[in-house]
Amino acid sequence: MPELACPFQCIYCNQATISGQSGFPDSADIVALIERNLQSLPTGKKHVDIAFFGGNFTGLPLKHQADYLDLVLPYLYDGRVQGIRLSTRPDYINDEVLLLLKAKHVHTIELGAQSLDDEVLARCGRGHTLADVALASSKIRELGFRLALQMMIGLPGDTAEKSLQTAKTIINLGAHETRIYPCLVVRGTALEQQYHNNEYTPLSLEEAVSLSASLLTRFESAGVKVIRLGLHPSEGLNGDALVAGPFHPAFKELVMTEIWRQLFISFPAWPTGPASIIIEVPGHEFNFAVGYAAANKNMLRKRFPKLQFVCNSRLTGRDFIVKPDIQC
Prior knowledge:
Blueprint: H1 15-19, H2 27-40, E1 49-52, H3 62-77, E2 83-88, H4 95-103, E3 108-114, H5 118-123, H6 130-142, E4 146-153, H7 160-172, E5 177-182, E6 185-186, H8 190-196, H9 205-222, E7 225-229, H10 235-238, E8 242-244, H11 251-266, E9 276-281, H12 286-290, H13 295-301, E10 306-311, E11 321-324
Parallel strand pairs: 1-2, 2-3, 3-4, 4-5, 5-7, 9-10
Antiparallel strand pairs: 6-8, 9-11
Helix pairs in contact: 7-9, 9-11
């Protein structure tokens, strides 16, 4: 729902360019999209949400909100989907809206907080403040919704320290979930003009990966689920919509690789001298431990020419075991 009901034009935003869509989605198109995606999902146990993203959903007239939600409720009632979520602005949350969303069985509300630093918010043209986010978050939690607070790193006026403080505030506001997006320079935005005028410098890919790794581990420690790292590789971002910035189609894999790289660097018990070793890691972390394009494996091979990564189903989290390979 690209930019529907958005009262402000954020300097970094051009949803129509990124998504290739504009205008109010047609009911038939929504149903066709849902049906097509449901058919593409693998069988078996799964959790499926229907999500309204890209615009300011609660800024729509209440009747339009109700009509859209009524359109998808049959999928919830027949069990083909397990939840409905939507994204909106913190300054468009009020009691009347929340009661409607509750009656229509919305379970998660995502607020595009982006930053929780008032100076950064003002420079980006967000049109709301930290106080608006705090009030909306409180109301959402009081009525029993799951709260997600989205954040964006590398915005104009932002710093690593401010991003870390934003993460701390997201945790303190009681968010259940978050998303971490690096700020990109997209064609047709005010930020593009700032970039060409040398008034804005985006994060490098390395900076965005390193900062996102720090943010992810902080959120995990606080029990806040990070449900997205980086923007989805849309047709626009893979085409000519992207002007500059730390976009990578495997951004999450780069971040997870960096977390494991730091774990290996700080590990105090590596064997001394040349050795053949086995590194046992949890199965769900195997690819990340090896690293994107085998980056971590190649790093360790400079010290241990003979090494092997193996899965250990008894390990949890990011625990790992290093032991000599006695077969060598």
